[in-house]
Write a structure and sequence with these properties.
Layout (H helix, E strand, L loop, with lengths): L1 E2 L15 E2 L6 E2 L10 E6 L23 H13 L8 E2 L9 E3 L14 E4 L5 E6 L3 E7 L4 E7 L1 H6 L1 H11 L8 E4 L9 E3 H10 L7 E3 L5 E4 L1 H10 L5 E4 L14 H7 L7 E7 L2
């Protein structure tokens, strides 16, 4: 089977190459979320799409400079992994905030609200968070059938995006003590060097945050453990469990996009992987 895009239906800047349908998008399943009745999820890798070059291959980033036709096809392939069409996959306009929104119906690709987390109790809506080093966190209360997805970079995690997601789920009648949260692939402490001002942002908020930093070989710098910070923030909220997949986006180039790796190489742009969750219809 071959999927093609005819030029009359695609603006010149959106026209991408013709392509054949390859293998299904590759994704990682979290043990804590697998086999939950009526819930589907996936932490997708960069593999199984149609993009090439620095975007190879499953780039779902609408904000990247990748050919829009490729991005749309990649998003359609992600949605198809849930047995749904592309119009059921929703992503917000992420801006490193503590804003969580409740999703009642899908919106068009690229027209989502400014937010860094989404929650829903509606079947057949795929909540998709894009990342390229920040922490994607998937949430579920399997009994109440309420799910959530959050984009937790350092700024969002520090200012409360994780707590905002949980509160939004509770507003949909989830029970805090039943919520399961899993952190997907993100940058590890071994790859996340930060400056002194960054450290002061965290220790100024809470002196105990000093434990998430270890000395760097570069004077005045430190290595920041974002995964540990996210999981610890989750664990003190009173939810049922919070775990991490322990996968590093920077180190695993064959599997994940990385913003920091792109900056170190001066490549100019980068792809985004997606982590998604859905209540089955």
């Amino acid at each position: 089977m071959t999927t093609t895009f005819d030029s009359p239906r695609i603006a010149p800047q959106d026209r991408g190459p013709r392509f054949s349908v390859p293998m299904r998008p590759q994704m990682i399943s979290a043990p804590d979320l697998t086999d939950l009745p009526g819930i589907a999820h996936g932490f997708f890798t960069r593999n199984g799409g149609v993009s090439d070059g620095i975007y190879a291959s499953l780039n779902i980033g609408l904000g990247s400079d990748d050919a829009r036709a490729n991005v749309r096809e990649n998003r359609a392939r992600v949605a198809s992994s849930f047995g749904l069409d592309a119009g059921r996959l929703v992503s917000p306009y992420q801006h490193h905030s503590a804003d969580a929104v409740t999703v009642r119906e899908p919106w068009a690709a690229g027209e989502g609200p400014k937010a860094d987390a989404m929650v829903t109790d509606q079947p057949g809506i795929i909540l998709g968070i894009s990342t390229a080093d920040c922490g994607p966190v998937l949430f579920v209360d399997p009994q109440a059938r309420v799910v959530g997805a959050a984009h937790a970079g350092w700024r969002g995690a520090l200012t409360g995006i994780l707590e905002s997601t949980i509160e939004a789920m509770v507003a949909l009648h989830a029970a805090r003590e039943r919520i399961i949260a899993v952190l997907g692939p993100c940058i590890s402490a071994q790859a996340y060097e930060v400056g002194g001002e960054f450290v002061e942002n965290f220790t100024g908020h809470d002196q105990k945050n000093e434990r998430y930093f270890t000395p760097s070989e570069k004077p005045g710098h430190a290595m920041f453990d974002l995964p540990a910070y996210i999981v610890d923030r989750l664990q003190v909220t009173g939810i049922a469990s919070a775990t991490s997949l322990g996968r590093c986006t920077y180190a695993e180039e064959d599997n994940f996009y990385s913003y920091r790796r792109m900056t170190h190489r001066g490549e100019g742009d980068y792809g985004r992987q997606v982590s998604a969750i859905c209540i089955r219809e």
